[in-house]
Amino acid sequence: MHAGAAPNMASNKPMYNRVLLKISGEALMADREFGLDPAMVSQVATEIKSVSSLGVEVCLVIGGGNIFRGVSVSAEGMERASADYMGMLATVMNALAVQSALELAGVATRVQSAIPMNAVCEPYIRRRAARHMEKGRVVIFAAGTGNPYFTTDTAAALRASEMECGALLKATKVDGVYEADPLLDPDAERYDTLSYMDVLSRDLKVMDAAAISLARENSIPIIVFSINEKDGFANVIKGNGRFTLIS
Questions:
Q1: pLDDT mean by block of 10 residues, the chain; 247 residues
Q2: How many CB atoms lie within 10 A of CB 147?
Q3: How many folded domains does the chain comprise?
Q4: Counting beta carbons within 10 angstroms of the beta carbon of residue 162, is it exposed (0 to 12), middle (13 to 18) or buried (19 or more)?
Q5: How far, in Å, CA of 110 to CA of 175, rounded?
């Protein structure tokens, strides 16, 4: 039994006891071309705090594409494994930035890295991470899976499975899953619900196939919503607001 999906949609009570939030590195840029936007990082911290204050145990995986994108750099000639390791280090930088913003907001936070770097954060230890969450701390999982050739989406599905989360929430710039990029195609159809197989067979670019397959194998619903909407994270946890449910 995952740490807990309750059946009631649309209420004032959280639907899940424990969730994993996946945020892309690009979401932390706001309107910048690269790097971090401090106001956006602070907004993300506020959203997480509001969910944590509901009594929901929260963990995070943050991408690194705002600093370094391994896939695109490897396409330009760098060895793929080296490029991916550099991307993992970028996720640690983002994790430390979000940790700082959360602790400024009064939320106890721990960063655990799949690549040990004891001077700046804890190594990833599954039982320790679970204990932190039981004590009300937010845990940020950095450095992906610790292996090249795997995306942070796959890392998010893996950690959500290991932590027995009730749901994996994917925070994006749009309010759900569309058949095409709604920022480029205003007429793109939006989906309220999808099955895992719908996503795979239609090749919808929500998360990569390995992440979708891992979530499917472990029966973890994926909820896609907009991080730009005020109280969006808390609303979705209660079953309110606009989102796409993949299950």
A1: 47 92 94 92 97 97 90 83 94 98 98 97 98 98 97 97 98 92 90 96 92 97 94 95 95
A2: 15
A3: 1
A4: middle
A5: 29
CA distance 55 to 200: 34
Contacts of 72 (CB under 8 A, 6+ apart): none
pTM: 0.93
CA separation for the pair 219, 235 (Å, rounded)? 22
1 in a domain, yes or no?
no
Query: Looking at residue 9, what is its pLDDT?
Result: 56
pLDDT at 99: 98
Domain containing 241: what range?
18-246
CA angle centred on 181, ends 49 and 151, rounded to 5°: 60
d(CA 151, CA 59): 17
Instruction: Write down the pLDDT at residue 83.
Output: 92
* Calpha distance 208→4 (Å, rounded): 25
- Helical H runs in the chain? 38-52, 70-75, 80-104, 126-134, 152-162, 196-201, 209-217, 232-237
